[in-house]
Design a protein that fits this description.
9 helices, alpha/beta, TIM Barrel
Length: 280
């Protein structure tokens, strides 16, 4: 792989909680100089067909991907599936089950909001009218648009975050099960943004040991918003557990000027790039 290549292996479209359509996302990435991009929407591959058409038009290489919610010791963990076959019957069936979990949780969250004297039914209807899979980010936007909170982050701090008044826990499939789905679809499983979880250093090491034992092979060493210190920590963990490294902006919205598509996402030299095995 040439360091001159601009690679971003973690992005979102409006098929989950991003703001751009898949084709618009690809066009924006190409204009920003991205040459290899993975579309990794939450628990859905619905945007990959449109993204692939746009990638052909713009001369960009698309890596088919997904970001799947999993559970490890009662902690929600996000696992990236890269270079997956989006038509894999097992993966498609599993993602339908994930979508059902998300829709059920949304109904329960909005019922909680109603109990808190907020317009839960109207918020639910608004979220359900949005194309794509409903997420808490959509609900946070609805709370902000309705003037019920003064910022997007405040919606999570006050209502939607873990332990808050409208939070609903979900029993996502076990980590090893999700890794199995990705491997069965011919993909590479990578832990997304590993420093973002509320885990001690020891717990994070146990997570990666369990992940590697389950067949996971990569770690997102550089992710949108993490500083150089986090990248160094993640690089050391990747080396210790024999994991390949990947990089991704976790792009959702062009309004987040601090995290644009096309910014430099350089993998530390000590880590073997996950894309090396794919001719990049």
């Amino acid at each position: 792989m040439s360091d001159a290549l601009n690679i971003d292996l973690h992005t979102h479209s409006n098929c989950s909680d991003g703001s751009l359509g898949p084709a618009e996302l690809i066009a924006r990435a190409a204009a920003a100089g991205v040459q290899v991009l993975a579309l990794t929407d939450h628990d859905t591959v619905a945007g990959l067909e449109d993204a692939q058409r746009s990638a052909h038009e713009h001369g960009l290489q698309l890596v088919p991907g997904v970001e799947i919610s999993a559970s490890w010791r009662a902690q929600a963990i996000h696992v990236l599936g890269l270079w997956i076959d989006p038509c894999s019957p097992q993966l498609c069936c599993s993602l339908r089950a994930q979508a059902d979990l998300r829709r059920s949780r949304m109904v329960k969250i909005c019922a909680q909001l109603t109990k808190l004297k907020l317009p839960g039914a109207a918020l639910l209807a608004g979220v359900q009218a949005i194309p794509g899979l409903p997420t808490r980010a959509h609900l946070a936007q609805g709370l902000l648009a309705g003037g019920h909170v003064d910022s997007f982050d405040a919606a999570f701090r006050k209502y939607l975050g873990k332990g808050k008044r409208a939070h609903i826990a979900v029993e996502w499939p076990a980590l090893q099960v999700v890794v199995g789905w990705i491997c069965a679809a011919g993909g590479v499983a990578a832990i997304a943004h590993p420093t973002r979880y509320a885990l001690s250093a020891g717990a994070r090491r146990r997570l990666l040991a369990d992940f590697a034992a389950a067949g996971g092979t990569a770690l997102e060493v550089v992710s949108g918003g993490n500083g150089g210190q986090h990248a160094e920590t993640c690089a050391a963990l990747a080396v210790h557990y024999g994991l390949f490294g990947t990089v991704g902006s976790d792009f959702h919205n062009p309004q987040a000027a601090w995290n644009p598509l096309g910014r430099s996402l350089k993998l530390p030299d000590c880590v073997t790039p996950v894309w090396r095995g794919f001719g990049l």
